[in-house]
Amino acid sequence: MKKQRIQIIQNLALRFRGDRDAAVIPLFGIMLIIIIVMAGAAVDVSRVVNAREKLSYALDAAALAAATDLSTQELTNDEIKDVITDSFNANLADAEFLDEAIENLAFSVDPDNGLITVSSTATMNNLFIDFGGYGKTAFGPEAFTFGTNSQVTYSRFDVEMAMVVDVTGSMGWALNDLKDASESVINILIPDSSTESKVKISLVPYSVGVNMDTYASTATDGVSTRCVTERSGDEQFTDASYTVEPAGDGSGTYRSQDCSDSVLQPLTDDRDTLMDAIDDLETEGYTAAQTGIGIGWYTLSPNWKDLWPAESQPAEYSNTEVLKFALIMTDGAFNTYYDKETLTYAECDSYYIGSRKYKGTCLSGTNDYWIEKPQGGYSGQPSQRALSLCSAMKNAGITIYTVYFGTATSSSQARVMEECADTGKYYVATSSDDLIAAFSNIAKKIQQVYLSQ
User: Which helix (H) or strand (E) holds 266?
Assistant: First the structure.
């Protein structure tokens, strides 16, 4: 019986070995499993590649957002992380790995070279390699880990800018447009989201002089308590300290009756302060633009820093990490200048030049007086003094943008504005819309300059 059973088994084995039709079935099954696993692996790898690309794009956007903010303001590490996280949430909103990518965020800032590096990693579960729970053991991991980084440069520079604006009587019809234009500069260079801005702006409104308010008495050594005009002598076209020679040199007291109520605002990064100063602009008086140009320079000059509050003191010219700019605009001919005259009381009391009478206080005896005089044209004293000041400012390293607001594009005032400006930085605005656009474009140009350096 035992022999018979052995024989049956041997016969079955011989039959199976000889049956070639059945041999392909298990082979096909094995190959099918391998094909499915390979196709699944390709799908899983493709998903991870796509996810890595999305992460890379999000990192680029986050690094750029952080670099942009770092270029315009000082940020703490927590604030930088908030900027990056907000960018991630915006660009990876539908990504299944968003939370993990945010959790694994890392960044470093190199202030010496102006670089920010952002990195992150995440994982994705394999859907196909895990073949019924067995594929991951035989063929690969349960999940793929992927990561990348992005490095972007940001500006290491601070910006100081003087905005010198015409508030003479002829600007009365366009005062609101001037305010809108000036506000556009603030909105671009000191956006509402700024905390500690890297941009400081001074506002210098001028007519026949500049209303320096509480700074006037110190700047003029007591000669004026409100309006400041021009300097004389060797310091006339320089930014030498006001302590060298008073800006309103002379023992007579000069106070222009036409000086605008618009008050100078020294350098500040407080947008609300600047917006309030712009809102308070009023128009009055003749055009002595050279006074505005000179005092605009003084708000940027380290030689005058002791006049201003600590937070408004300009940087030294030698500080290569601070860029200095001036935006100067006018709508009319430069027609007023000032000279020092030595007069007796009688001469002072009856002093006229053209149709203009001296408006200051006349003192007994013989004294020096700062006299307002009319003169127009390109060759006139106001225009030539403005050009001398612009040239000196550029030599000091200040980049000048100018705007002529009007339709007389071949006029003396247009010519002065064009020559005052650095090459390619002169704008003509023939309408209210043009004025606003010119100011906005200048702000954007300044922004591009310091962001690209």
Answer: strand 265-268
- Strand 265-268 and strand 336-343: pairing? unpaired
Closest Cα to residue 302, out of 332, 270, 324? Answer: 324
Please, are residues 336 and 227 in contact by the beta-carbon 8 Å criterion?
A: no
**Phi and psi of 172, rounded to 5°?**
-55, -40
**Residue 231 amino acid letter:** R
Report the distance separating Cα 413 and Cα 407, nearest Å: 11
pLDDT of residue 252: 43
Task: Tell me which residue of 42, 51, 31 sits closest to 127, measured CA to CA.
Answer: 42
Does 245 have pLDDT greater than 60? yes
Q: For residue 372, which phi and psi values (nearest 5 degrees)? A: -80, 130
Report d(CA 355, CA 358) in Å as an integer: 10
SS3 per-residue string spanning 185-213:
HHHHHCCCCCCEECEEEEEEEECCCEECH
The full set of domain ranges for the chain reads 2-153, 158-452
Contact between residue 141 and residue 156 where contact means Cβ atoms under 8 Å apart: no
Cα separation, 310 vs 98, whole angstroms? 45
- CATH number, domain 158-452, options 3.60.110.10, 3.40.50.10700, 3.40.50.410, 3.20.20.80: 3.40.50.410
Confidence of residue 135 (pLDDT cuts 50, 70, 90): very low
Helix (H), strand (E) at residue 86: helix 77-91
Model pTM score = 0.73
Answer for the pair 126, 142: CB distance below 8 angstroms, yes or no. Answer: yes
Whether 55 contacts 97, CB under 8 Å:
yes
Q: Residue 254: what pLDDT?
A: 47
CA 293 to mean position of chain CA atoms: 22
